[in-house]
Amino acid sequence: MTPTLNTIDIIVSDMAAGMAFYARLGLEFKLDPHSPEHAGCDLPNGLHLMLNTEPFRTPFLPGWSAPTGGPRTLLCFQYPAPADVDTAYAELIEAGYRGLAEPFDAFWGMRHATVADPDGNGVDLYAALPATQSQER
């Protein structure tokens, strides 16, 4: 039997802060009417993204503690154009979020930047570089 990946769950320390951050990236979370510590967002292709507060999720993960150090997992958001990556990164930094990697032209042909969400999870912002520019690298 082959399982289907259909949900990603992010544990957040502050639901409102998490929802506000991801709203800036175009995701609209809806709070669960039965629990304000759980929110969900349907994504294309049947994927579902959840935010759960630490008190909601940790009873099901005995011994869990918030990770330290750099992010081990990153959510990646594709933009239509390289300039959009720069704009999104600048807007997030101006709003007080922490940058992990300023926008740069990566050798693999993308404009790329990384920010941290309010809990330190990595979020990549990227767009394909024009074909002529990426072929020169």
Structure description:
This protein folds into 2 domains: 7-60, Signal recognition particle alu RNA binding heterodimer, srp9/1, CATH 3.30.720; 74-135, Roll (2,3-Dihydroxybiphenyl 1,2-Dioxygenase, domain 1), CATH 3.10.180. Helices cover 23% and strands 36% of the residues. The protein contains 4 helices and 8 strands, in the order βαβββαβαβββα. It has helices at 15-23, 54-57, 82-94, 131-135; strands at residues 7-12, 30-32, 35-42, 48-53, 74-78, 99-106, 110-116, 122-128. The strands form 2 sheets. Strands 1-4-3-2 form a 4-stranded mixed β-sheet. Strands 5-8-7-6 form a 4-stranded mixed β-sheet, with helices on one face. The mean pLDDT is 92.
Question: In a nutshell, what does this entry contain?
Answer:
The protein has 137 residues and is α/β, with parallel strands linked by helices.
Give the topology, please.
Blueprint: E1 7-12, H1 15-23, E2 30-32, E3 35-42, E4 48-53, H2 54-57, E5 74-78, H3 82-94, E6 99-106, E7 110-116, E8 122-128, H4 131-135
Parallel strand pairs: 1-4, 5-8
Antiparallel strand pairs: 2-3, 3-4, 6-7, 7-8
